[in-house]
Specification:
Number of strands: 9
Shape: globular
Order of helices and strands: EHEHEHEEHEEHEHEHHHHHH
CATH superfamily of the largest domain: Spore Coat Polysaccharide Biosynthesis Protein SpsA, Chain A
Largest sheet: 9 strands, mixed
Strand content: 15-25%
CATH class of the largest domain: Alpha Beta
Number of domains: 2
C-alpha cells in the first residue's frame, strides 16, 4: 500500500496536464499512487494520461462519464489505497518537496489533517520556477473552525494532506458550487488533530481569460444547500458552541454574502431575488441568521430583504468603497 493517494481530476486540460503530471511524478517523496480520473475529457488528455501510466506504474487512470470535479474526486476516493490523501487540479503545480514536507509534518505531529498555503501563478509558470520549502513556517495546531473563519486555513481541498479515514463517511457533494465549503468543514470536524503551516506548497494557476465564478441560479442555490446541510449536521452532532458560531459567521459572510458581489455588479435583479428567497428559507430553518453578518453586510441584506434592491445595491457600493 502506498503512503499517499494523489487524486487528480482531469478535464479539458491537455495544455497544462503534462506539466502537472511531471511536477507530481518528480516529487522528492516517491511512495504514492497517482489516481488520474478522466472525466470524459473531450481533448487529448486521455492519451496523455495513458502515456504517463505506461511510463510510471504509480499512475492509475480511471475513466468515467462526465460528472464534474466533485464526482471525479469521489471516484478517486473510492479507488484510493494510500494511508493519506492529496488532491491536485489538472493545471496546477506543487513545490518539488511538497509531499515530503507534508508527510514530515504529519509524522512530527501525528495530525489527521495537515494544511498549508498556496500561491496564484500565471499561465506561463513552469515547475522550474517553483521554490522548495525547507523549514516549516508558523506551525500551529488548528482547534475548531476559527482558523477557517479567519482564513488562516483556506477551504480548497488541494491545500491539505488528509488521513484517508477522514473520508470514510464523507464525499464531495456533486453540486455546481460549494463542494469545497462542505468538504473542509466536514473533514476538519472529523479530524482529531489538525495543523497548519504558512508554507506555500501549492501553486494555483490563474488564466487571463478565466471567467470568475459568476453565479447563476443553480450555483446560488447550491451554496445555500451546502450551508443548510452543514448547519443540519452541526445541529445534530456534537459540536462546540464556539465552532457553530464560527461556522455560521463564515457561512454568512464568506460564502453566502459573497454571492451578492457579482450579482450586484451585474445589476441582476432576478438573481438578487433568488438570493433573497434562499436566504429567507435558510434562516427560517437553521441557526444561521442576520446576526452572523458583519454590520456593513447586514446593512445591505436588510435592504434587500425589505424588497428594495436599488437601496441594497447603493448600500453595497457604499460599504465596498468604505471597506466596511
Amino acid at each position: 500500500m502506498p503512503a499517499i493517494s494523489v487524486i487528480l481530476p482531469v478535464y479539458n486540460s491537455e495544455k497544462y496536464l503534462p506539466q502537472t503530471l511531471d511536477c507530481l511524478l518528480k516529487q522528492t517523496f516517491s511512495d504514492f499512487e497517482l489516481i488520474a480520473v478522466n472525466d470524459s475529457s473531450p481533448d487529448n488528455a486521455a492519451a496523455i494520461l495513458e502515456q504517463a501510466a505506461r511510463k510510471d506504474p504509480r499512475v492509475k487512470v480511471l475513466n468515467r462519464p462526465n460528472g464534474g470535479q466533485s464526482a471525479a474526486r469521489n471516484t478517486g476516493l473510492d479507488a484510493a489505497t494510500g494511508d493519506f490523501i492529496l488532491f491536485c487540479d489538472d493545471d496546477d503545480l506543487m513545490s518539488p518537496n511538497a509531499f515530503e514536507m507534508m508527510m514530515s509534518l504529519q509524522k512530527q505531529t501525528d495530525a489527521d489533517l495537515v494544511c498549508h498555503g498556496y500561491k496564484r501563478i500565471g499561465p506561463e509558470t513552469t515547475a522550474a520556477d517553483l521554490p522548495a520549502s525547507r523549514d516549516a513556517e508558523g506551525l500551529k495546531t488548528v482547534k475548531g473552525f476559527s482558523f477557517l473563519r479567519r482564513k488562516t486555513v483556506n477551504i480548497m481541498p488541494w491545500s491539505k494532506l488528509y488521513r484517508r479515514s477522514l473520508f470514510d463517511a464523507i464525499r464531495f457533494p456533486e453540486l455546481p458550487l460549494g463542494e469545497d465549503f462542505y468538504s473542509s468543514f466536514m473533514t476538519l470536524h472529523a479530524a482529531k488533530k489538525a495543523v497548519c503551516v504558512k508554507n506555500k506548497l501549492y501553486f494555483h494557476r490563474c488564466h487571463p481569460t478565466q471567467q470568475s465564478r459568476c453565479p447563476n441560479e443553480a450555483k446560488i442555490r447550491a451554496v445555500f444547500e451546502v450551508a443548510r446541510r452543514l448547519s443540519d449536521f452541526f445541529d445534530k452532532n456534537p459540536t462546540a458552541k464556539a465552532d457553530k458560531r464560527d461556522f455560521a459567521r463564515y457561512a454568512a459572510c464568506s460564502q453566502l454574502y459573497s454571492l451578492l458581489t457579482p450579482v450586484f455588479e451585474a445589476n441582476d435583479d432576478a438573481l438578487a431575488q433568488v438570493w433573497k428567497d434562499a436566504w429567507t428559507t435558510l434562516t427560517q430553518n437553521s441557526f444561521i441568521s442576520e446576526k452572523d453578518l458583519s454590520f456593513g453586510r447586514r446593512f445591505v441584506v436588510n435592504a434587500l430583504l425589505a424588497g428594495d434592491a436599488e437601496k441594497a445595491k447603493k448600500r453595497f457600493a457604499f460599504i465596498k468603497k468604505c471597506r466596511i
